[in-house]
Design a protein that fits this description.
The chain has 161 residues and is α+β, with helices and mostly antiparallel strands. The chain is built from six helices and four strands. One of its GO terms (cellular component) is extracellular region.
């Protein structure tokens, strides 16, 4: 299961990079158990060098306990190192859009003000992401069936600073 998740995470990383979201750090924390430690090499081989696979030592404090989470959670931090989202099951399933959307929001919303870690063309990249998301929403909106129907538009709100 973890190999499947790591492959999906690699796919997501490539997708986001192709959309212009660069310089994002991805880390997979391997479980402390003996079985997980034996499978570490398979996990490491299932992702590119752009995703760090961290092997916990059996004697150290469990990372997930320290972070107040569980092994299948996604913790998403902004460029300033602040926790923006902590997604647990079922929201951490990569077949849903929650992880991807959370990364995009953490990347695009500049809550910490001017920052030396901000990418030079972030406004253009994030504008394109917002435009694409709005187009996808427009495609799934229900269409009026007759002249008496009322069309309620769905809007996605993003804040650009």
């Amino acid at each position: 299961l973890l190999l499947y998740i790591s492959t999906r995470l690699e796919d997501l990383r490539v997708k986001l990079e192709n959309e212009g979201l660069v310089n994002i750090s991805y880390v997979i924390v391997n479980h402390q158990g003996t079985y997980s430690q034996r499978k570490f090499h398979l996990l490491k081989e299932s992702v590119s060098d752009y995703i760090t696979v961290y092997q916990q030592d059996e004697l150290q404090a469990d990372v997930w306990t320290t972070l107040n989470g569980n092994k299948d959670d996604f913790l998403i931090y902004d460029r300033c190192g602040r926790l923006v989202y902590h997604l647990g099951l079922p929201y951490s399933f990569l077949s849903f859009q929650y992880v991807e959307e959370s990364i995009k929001i953490a990347y695009c919303e500049n809550k910490c003000g001017n920052c030396s870690y901000t990418e030079p063309d972030i406004d253009g990249i994030c504008e394109n992401i917002t435009k694409k998301a709005d187009e996808e929403l427009a495609e799934i909106e229900p269409k009026p069936t007759d002249q008496h129907s009322h069309h309620h538009s769905l809007h996605r709100h993003r804040h650009h600073h």
